[in-house]
Amino acid sequence: MTYRAEYIWIDGTEPTPEVRSKTKILADGDEPGIWGFDGSSTNQATGDNSDVVLQPAFTCPDPIRGGDNILVLCETALTADLSPHPTNTRAAAREALDKYGDQEPWFGLEQEYTMLDMTTGWPAGFPPNGFPAPQGPYYCGVGAVKIHGRDLVEEHTTACIEAGLKISGTNAEVMPGQWEFQIGPANTVEVGDHLWIARYLLYRVAEKHNVEISIAAKPMKGDWNGAGMHTNFSTKAMRESYDPIIAACEAIGAPGKPEEHLAGYGQGIEERLTGAHETQRFDQFSYGVSDRGASIRIPWQVAQDQKGYIEDRRPNANADPYVVATIMTNTVCSALA
User: Which of 106, 279, 305 is nearest to 194 (CA)?
Assistant: First the structure.
């Protein structure tokens, strides 16, 4: 008897890395070991030295194929010494967690995405060469006029649950054809593992529905919301008292830090962070209670309870979750140490 292991990795496409995968057939009882791929076809090597190593890092059931089949998320490594490949952002997340794991960093990532019609290239719910009614009724909406693609969302959610991912919710977003799912709470490494697998499953389910998934930061120009990956973060100290929450906000806004964070928060920051559509401008930093126009929002309930978490509203939908989690962990945990 045999089973299939779907090896999944993050490529070297710039400015926005993409997920890749291929299938290995294994005999029952055999564990998925290291494998390789042609890095010259994934922007990760040159043709004269093309091999890149796949090192299994996270494994879960394959809900698409079912049975004993599995998904194998891999780190990429160099053939010379199996050190992390330059495009391997998970390695830095591991280092951050190793250094600050005693502070128990937790993340909740809100992955927004847009369903695109394969024929028109426009978001689902947009008429060909036209526009729907203005934003307002679509966020968490119900009804065929307001909502498009719910069957795909439900199928994706079920797949994430069956894979054992820490998916914690879904909702329709502000622009027609735009949705969101949330992953967490999970630590600096785990949240990236689960989000990348959830993205992979989203793309696979969308194939069946003949829908293209976009995680572009501004999929529609004009007076339409962009797509983000709002990042909820806390440490043990933040979950126990309020002073560390303010200290975290101050650390994130310290000189040089806003620029450092934005550099790792995905492609299209200036298009999305305009100061409109529930964002702060990319060149300004602020934090406040219940303020969705701030860079960092302190939820109202957190202020009431005097403990909890913060929400960084700046990361784009196309950001690498490993990079976002690494930057946040290093910035806040070093300040709270």
Answer: 106
- Could you tell me which of 325, 66, 36 has the C-alpha nearest to residue 187? 325
Residues 128 and 148 in one domain: yes
Task: Give me the percent of the chain exceeding a pLDDT of 70.
Answer: 100
78 and 104 together in one domain: no
Domain count, the chain: 2
What are 64-111's pLDDT values in tens digits? 999 999 999 999 999 999 999 999 999 999 999 999 999 999 999 999
Instruction: Report yes or no: 320 and 310 within 8 Å, Cβ to Cβ.
Output: no
> 82 and 27, same structural domain?
yes
Which residue type is seen at 244? Answer: P
Mean pLDDT, range 301-312, rounded to an integer: 98
- Tokens coding 265: 């928060």
For residue 233 the two structure tokens come to 């973060």
Determine what percent of the chain is predicted with pLDDT higher than 90. Answer: 88
CATH code for the domain in which residue 117 is found: 3.30.590.10
Per-residue burial over 121-138, b if 16 or more Cβ lie within 10 Å, else e, is ebbbbbeeeeebeebebb
CATH number at residue 67: 3.10.20.70
